[in-house]
Amino acid sequence: MVANEGFSGAVDGGVRTLLRSEGFLLLIAAVAFYERIAGSWVVFALLFLVPDLSFAGYLLGPRIGALAYNMMHATVGPLALAAVGIALDHHLALTLALIWLAHIGFDRALGYGLKHAQGFSFTHLGRIGRSARES
Predict the structure, then answer these.
(1) Rounded to the nearest 10 degrees, what angle do helices 91-109 and 13-36 cross at?
(2) pLDDT for position 4
(3) Count of CB atoms within 10 A of residue 13's CB?
(4) What stretches in the chain show pLDDT beneath 50?
(5) What is the pLDDT of residue 45?
(6) What are phi and psi of 127, to 5 degrees?
(7) Of 79, 68, 72, which is closest to residue 47 (Cα–Cα)?
């Protein structure tokens, strides 16, 4: 059985591969730019997983959890922060934006997509976790 069968709102096949590849390239580009601006690798290591604190939203239910996760895992936030950092020549803003983008790229490359309200395992890149393997 196909993992996405019966679940609308997810991609599969070549489109899924393309989106995961984009995530990997986002990770590589963010890390390369981070190196270029001479960001601290200690700061990078300390902050890389901070967006995953949004998992705590799932303590309030799947709808709130998905909203919290998606707010921290959509590229619009870090891209806006990067634009501000560039426009105002604000190194910290750009540093944080690149770490954030690297995290998002890493997650996407691994297949962790934006969440649907049905639950954590329902993503725009398909089902993840044990429930996907059991399908």
Answers:
(1) 150
(2) 47
(3) 10
(4) 1-5
(5) 98
(6) -70, 145
(7) 72
Give residue 3's pLDDT: 47
Among 24, 28, 49, which Cα is nearest to 111's? 24
Cβ–Cβ contacts within 10 Å for residue 87, how many? 9
Please give the Cα distance from 81 to 41 (Å, whole number): 19
pLDDT of residue 15: 86
State the Cα–Cα distance between residues 74 and 72, nearest whole angstrom.
Answer: 6
Q: How far apart are CA 102 and CA 61, in angstroms?
A: 27
Closest CA to 98 of 32, 51, 42, 46: 32
Edge-to-edge strands, sheet with 119-123: 115-116, 119-123, 126-127
Q: What is the 3-state secondary structure (H, E, C) of the chain?
A: CCCCCCCCCCCCHHHHHHHHHHHHHHHHHHHHHHHHCCCCHHHHHHHCCHHHHHHHHHHHCHHHHHHHHHHHHCCHHHHHHHHHHHHCCCHHHHHHHHHHHHHHHHHHHCCCCCEECCEEEEECCEECCHHHHHC
Tokens describing residue 63: 């709808």
